[in-house]
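INFO  loader      accepted 1 record
INFO  loader      residues=400
INFO  predictor   begin
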Amino acid sequence: MLAELERWGSDVIFGRAKGFRAAMMRMAMTTLSGVFRLLVQTRLALFRTGWKPQRHLGTLVISIGNITVGGTGKTPVTEFLAKTLRDRGRRVAILSRGYKSKKLDRPQKWRHRDGSQVDPEKMPKIVSTGSALLLDSKYAGDEPFMLARNLDGVSVVVDKDRVKGGRFAINELDADTLVLDDGMQYLNLAHGIDIVLVDAGSPFGTEALLPRGTLREPPKNLRRASYIFLTKCDGTSNEALIKRIRKYNRTAEVVETTHGPIYLENLFTRERKPLHFLKGKWVAAISAIAVPEAFERSVEKLGARVEVRRHFSDHHRFTRKDVDQFMQRCVERDMDLMITTEKDAVRFPRPTELNVPIFFLRIEVEILKGREVWDRMIDRLCDPQPPLEQALRNRNAYRP
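INFO  predictor   done
INFO  writer      dumping tokens
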């Protein structure tokens, strides 16, 4: 019932739902959006004036975030950044809130270097130490688990209180660089660098704030960005979008990126297939992400014929019944294969009968324009001069 309500709410926001009830809901949401705007700007003012203090942990903190909900590609960018910093010698820890993750059945145990037990109340959930994966997606959350699985040598911790998570990562996991996943609105922890992602295809969503639209903050709040990454670019000019962004932020350097498919991987055998394997195949697509249409278009661009589709609400945890029913549809329609996203794959149960092979599409970030900006940023973060290192550690991240 909740999933159906969530889908209907999404249809109302994007105008897909019609009729009197949907129209009245949109009117109510518009009123609430005005209230939400006031709350957002008041909260930012409290941080700016010091009424709400920010914590400084004495190390480099890089925030990756956006001003819209869902779908800008934060996870691939976070992975790309963490991997690059790791390869340049930084000891990286990713801090995540673990959206929709379950509470642990029993607390994890951790010992200090002197052998004493760490108080469980002071511990975040440790998804990965960088050398060992300790939690599955149910308790870690989809994105943290995916990052931990793909990033050897990078620790991942989950806690709504990311100050606590950061302190643990520094003291117990020897991190000297904290990457704050989805951190633009998390101002309790001071940021040294703010990387803000803007979807080139839908930069400001529906142009309205929550709950009527998909904006978390007004576009003018892009002024807090140190760098702006345009994601999901298709190679066409972004000049008009950059011109608009410059109205809000005149100084942030811009990097244009695309999220490109790299290969297919079988969920259960781990067999990898090249992208041309999809050409001419009859495919059934199943997903539980914010914008499933974009995923399906990318599959079609690779030459597949997407004949059967099934959408669930974002972060839906698939049951065996969900998968079995969809598998039966695939068998009845004589599909060549079933395909899902990498994020969905981490919570995909094995069907009772595996009559049709199931693959996920591996996506990675590619820089189209602004490679020199990226290189300068990485040099700045990995080989800072002492005054800059101190400034990144101590400055207040909020800039009015």
